[in-house]
Design a protein that fits this description.
It comes from Bowdeniella nasicola. InterPro entries: AB_hydrolase_3, AB_hydrolase_fold, GDXG_lipolytic_enzyme. The protein is α/β, with parallel strands linked by helices. It has a single domain, classed as Rossmann fold, CATH 3.40.50.1820. Helices cover 38% and strands 16% of the residues. The protein contains 9 helices and 8 strands. α4 packs across α5. It is globular, with a radius of gyration of 20 Å.
């Protein structure tokens, strides 16, 4: 048998084995959440793949009808940094039904994503909740490692709090909401807000990225889709630098590493059981509760990371979003 024939058979056999393994992994997801993109394996774990997602896959989405958007630039929250943070403020044209306000923090593993990518999502939140929503376009690693993103997010929250003191919003009805890396940044921003005297009615954490060590040891059945262990290692290394264990003088860098969680804002945490962040999110929820912080924890069987983005109309994802909106409405009305 010719060498090329043997090579072709070996390649076909390997591809078949890979597909069979991948198919078994996809079957772990709830049937309503399975998607053709579950078969794509292109983890964001190097600069080339990151550039592909940033410049080819990720495109701005439109602002929904019925919502006005204002683009502002505000100073970041660091005295030695002259960066101006882009902030988008969405307001229902029909008027607000609550004097509360929400800060949205987009996801993207700390290395990708943008506020413009979430125009549709942010304007939908404004319509669903009848409030003003601000979305912060924070700086991304690796070009801008910690604390750039945190300073940008805190500057956006401080802007909302300042507007509240001027009477635009109710200072008792400010909430922060983020997904994935944005959820981790929302948790860190909520910690800093507590320390600097900004009260929050709720921190909404959608499958938040909280622990830098996740993905360094095997986690069978978790992290197979959307955000993988190798992507998580790359994201944290880009954000923290190569020495990811050194936190000396870097508070808020890794939200789960804060020792004292008492006094933090009430939390809503939602995560799927197939998510890479499932275990770390449950640990953080348990620690918050042990510290006396009210926590509403929602877990979804058969849900992988960001499944609500791929299958938003699936019944389980509609229930997931409804639970989040209910918690937000409760905080905004209290």
């Amino acid at each position: 048998m010719k060498a090329w024939t043997i090579a072709a058979l070996a390649a076909a056999t390997g591809a078949g084995a890979w597909f069979a393994r991948r198919h078994r992994q996809v079957q772990l997801a709830h049937p309503s959440l399975r998607h053709r993109l579950n078969y794509r394996v292109l983890p964001v774990n190097n600069p080339l793949v990151l550039a592909y997602y940033q410049h080819i896959v990720h495109k701005p989405t439109p602002v929904l009808e019925g919502v006005s958007v204002e683009h502002l630039q505000i100073p970041t929250a660091a005295p030695d940094d002259d960066h101006l943070v882009d902030l988008y403020v969405y307001t229902p044209q029909a008027g607000v039904t609550s004097r509360g306000a929400l800060l949205w923090v987009h996801g993207g593993g700390l290395i990708m994503g943008s506020a413009a990518l979430d125009h549709t999502h942010s304007s939908q939140l404004a319509l669903d909740l009848g409030i003003t929503v601000a979305s912060v376009d924070y700086r991304l690693a690796p070009h801008h490692p910690f604390p750039a993103a945190l300073n940008d997010c805190f500057a956006a929250l401080a802007w909302l709090a300042d507007e509240a003191t001027k009477g635009r919003f109710d200072p008792a009805r400010l909430v922060i909401l983020g997904a994935s890396a944005g959820g981790g940044l929302a948790a860190a921003t909520a910690q800093r807000a507590h320390d600097e005297g900004i009260a929050l009615a709720l921190q909404g954490l959608i499958y938040p990225m909280l622990e830098s060590g996740t993905g360094h040891t095997p986690m069978p059945g978790k992290g197979e889709f959307s955000w993988t262990p190798s992507a998580n290692r790359y994201g944290w290394r880009s954000y923290l630098g190569r020495d990811v264990t050194n936190r000396d003088g870097r508070p808020y860098a890794v939200p789960a590493e804060r020792e004292d969680l008492s006094g933090l804002a009430p939390a809503w945490i939602g995560v799927g059981e197939l998510d890479l962040f499932y275990d770390e999110d449950l640990r953080y929820a348990a620690r918050l509760r042990a510290a006396g912080v009210p926590v509403d924890l929602v877990t979804v069987p058969g849900m992988y990371h960001a499944a609500d983005g791929l299958r938003p109309e699936a019944p389980a994802m509609l229930e997931f979003r409804a639970a989040m909106l209910s918690a937000l409405r409760g905080a905004l009305a209290s």
